[in-house]
Design a protein that fits this description.
single chain, 457 residues, UDP-N-acetylmuramoyl-L-alanine:D-glutamate ligase, Protein-Tyrosine Phosphatase, Chain A, 2 domains, eight-stranded mixed sheet, six-stranded mixed sheet, 15% strand, disordered N terminus
Amino acid sequence: MSKAGHTRAPRNSSDISLSSPSDSLLARLQTLHPKSIDLSLGRVHRLLRALGDPHRSIPPVVHVAGTNGKGSVVAFLKAMLEASGYRAHVFTSPHLVRFHERIQLAAQGGARPISESHLADVLARTETANRGEPITFFEITTAAAFLAFAENPADIVLLETGLGGRLDATNVIDEPLATVLTAISIDHCSYLGDNIEAIAGEKAGILKRGRPAIVSRQSDEAMHVIAMRAAALEAPVIAAGASWDVFEQQGHLVYQDEESLLDLPLPRLFGHHQFENAGTAIATARNLEGFHVSEAAIAKGITSAVWPARLERLGPGRLHALAPEGSEIWVDGGHNPAAGEVVARALADLEERVSSPIHLIVGMLSTKDAGGFLRHFQGLPELTATVDIEGQTSAYKADELAAIARREGLAAEPAGSLEEAFAKSRAAAKGPIRIVIAGSLYLAGQVLAAHAEEPHD
């Protein structure tokens, strides 16, 4: 995920093609800081002051941090609020295909990605205000998002952190309406610490004095750190398993808190882990001072939320022509051991209901715990193909990743490209299969872009 306080490279090598004004601006902004990661709030505060502190003029903010589930919680919450008639601005990262996805502005019918002309305008103004000073890509684009949010009407801002929380470029909001901490696990150890307690401390850095903190189910170690931080700030904690709970019962999602019990439809987003994410969004919606989100709006929100590349089954598109007839294609951008666990569990549950051979296509960054991710898939895929991630020099080579997968008990072999991986799958298939592409949001973005392309003769 794109991380606060450091430069995030384009989603893939074709993202910044210099074909539009925003592409050229984004390319220049990539060069303003020599380090890829440099967590700090000083630079973004300096730039925001030069812009007139737009972050102090935006609508009330819900600030969301965590290791996994941030984007899904934001997607659910956005859909619930919009079903209630509220207008929401949304900031998420990274993007999958185009940068515009990161900044969504409130619009009739729901928030939409910022337009090309509007993005080029706010980027140009932030670049001018920065006066060539060192600043990371994430920091300057976060400032641009605040500028857009301050100048366009909305009722609420849903603000997702990048990396961590305490020194995240989004953590300049002094008085959020609420903070949210999704599931915390091991990831980005080089920057956040190599144990759960240290990582939880960084994530809990978004908590603010007196402001409610809605907390997903956590390990005991993470919850202890969060509770201590919240107590020091006198921030009310609304935690899963204590203040609220959520579970599946007879094909329904049941949410219960201290006030009531809601009998809801199952979420649109697939997988048992999405029950917890939906529950976190419901708990948040029910604890936003000044906002009323009805049970009907909650039900509509969890059944209409969209969050691409999170166990997403692809609809019609180019890649189906590469797969055996009648096959399913699924894509997920999860890239840490906790994500591997929930994806593998979801696939196993799906296999129990609708049996179909699973073929796994995986690409990962070399900064990730590939073995920890892949070991959860033992016994699931009939075939595993590993691929390079085009344009990412920090990605595992396909043969390196295949060797790791084999050590984790998977029958893996490298493929020279995504197309070659599909060809291996076709050659091995004896009928319709379930192709699952996973391991990286970079790869997921390239898959979605390829799926949307017209087939070439």
